[in-house]
Amino acid sequence: MQSPSTPGRAFFLTCKPIFCKAVSQMGNGSKLIPIKNKMKFIKEVNEILPFDRELYIDYLLGETQSPVVWYGASFQISANSEAQTNVRKTEAYESLLKTAILKFDPKSIWMVNHDDKDLKWLPKKGANLSSLRALFDQYGVRYEFSGALIFTQDELLAIFPELIAYPRVAAQVDGRLYKDLDITHNTLPLVIKISGHFNIDFLSTDLSFLKGLVKDLSDETFDVKAYRGTSLFPPPAPSK
Hints:
This protein is an alpha+beta fold. Helices cover about 25% and strands about 25% of the residues. It has 5 helices and 11 strands. It is globular, with a radius of gyration of 18 Å. It starts with a strand and ends in a 14-residue tail after the last strand.
């Protein structure tokens, strides 16, 4: 696979596989924010994301005139898969997300924030999301904090099962979804979206990068749906 090549951003790999450590040089007046290897709670989300969040949200809202093009692939449980109960679906997505995260350099830093609007992380008291609550308690952060959580790879792997459940359980009201979560690599052009509708989506500004990731992660458990404007697979050969 080729290395990411986004207009306004140049990405250079420091080892052979595409998912190893990368260094990003940001164009258009942007700059890469250095983040030390320790969990952090960052209030100003827009200042740490390695892309323009407003343009990203424009894409999600259907804006077609954006100067930055995003591509996306949604992994959804196949109707033919054995993972049809909520428990089995959750297990399948845990395996998918873990596999994806482990493809990257172990020293990677990951940013987790609410999708398009920063809300309170733990809006209600309760016993759910116990590991996430324990992290807030450990760092002396109020449950009402809104902003981004910064994880090392090991920290993310320890908490990601609760992140998968988060959009469906944070509101603590049956049938009510809270906010989708975005998990962003701090240098690569990649957003992993955790949806409350039981799917995990991968978005990137580099189509070749996204295609390679989708190819590596695809199996019979999931149907992969391309976002609008995204061509993941070659068109079928014309019939003779």
